[in-house]
Amino acid sequence: VIVLIVLTLGLLMTGCSSGTNQQPVIGKPAPNFKLQSLDGQSISLSDFRGKPVLINFWATWCNPCRSEMPYLQQIYEEWHGKGMVVLTINIGESSSQIKEFMQSQGLSLLVLLDKEGSVAQKYNILGIPTTFFLDKGGIIQDKIVGAFQNKAQIEKRLDKILP
C-alpha cells in the first residue's frame, strides 16, 4: 500500500510540473523577476548583480513575518552601506496596507509588490516567510522557510553570501 501511494504521488507531482518552469535551487542562479516597488519604481533582481542579496517573501497578515521584520530592518541598516541588498517581496496585498504597516513599525526596507503572486510561484513559495540568500553572482546559497527568531540567525546565514 505504501509503495502504491508513493508511486501515485510521484506520478501526480510529475504530471503537474512543466519542464520549462525554473525552480530555485541552492547552487544555481536565482530566477530573475521584475516588480514594482512600494514607491512605484520598476525593479529587477538583475539590477543587483554584483551584490549579495537577501530576498524575503512575506505578508502583513502573517504573524511570523511581522515578528522578523525588525531583524531584517537591523540587517538592512547595518549592511546596506556595505553593498548588500535586502529585498522584501510582499505577496498579494495592496500598497496602502503595506505602507500603513511599514509606517506603524518604523520600517524603511525596500518592498516589492507581487500582487498576483507570480514571483512567489516562480520561487515555489509554499509558506511564508521564506528567505533566499544570493551571492554577488546571483547564485542561491541558502533558503530558509520560517521566521528568524533574532538578528544573529540572519547574520549566521550572511556568511554564505558576504565576501
Q: Counting H and I runs of at least 4 residues, what is the number of helices?
A: 5
SSE pattern: HEEEHEHEHEEH
Roughly what is the average pLDDT, rounded to an integer? 88
Strand composition percent? 15-25%
Q: Note poorly predicted spans.
A: 6-21
Distance between the termini: 51 Å
What's the total count of β strands?
7
Shape estimate? globular
Kindly name the structural category. Answer: alpha/beta
Strand order of the largest sheet: 2-1-5-4-3-6-7
Give the helix level as a range of percent.
Answer: 25-40%
The Cα radius of gyration reads 17 Å
Largest sheet: 7 strands, mixed
Describe the protein's architecture and organization.
The chain is of the alpha/beta class. 34% of the residues lie in helices and 22% in strands. The chain has five helices and seven strands. It has helices spanning 2-16, 63-79, 95-105, 118-122, 151-158; strands at 34-37, 42-44, 53-58, 85-91, 110-114, 130-134, 140-145. Strands 2-1-5-4-3-6-7 form a seven-stranded mixed beta sheet. Strand 3 (53-58), helix 2 (63-79) and strand 4 (85-91) form a beta-alpha-beta unit. The radius of gyration is 17 Å and the shape is globular. Mean pLDDT is 88; it is low at 6-21.
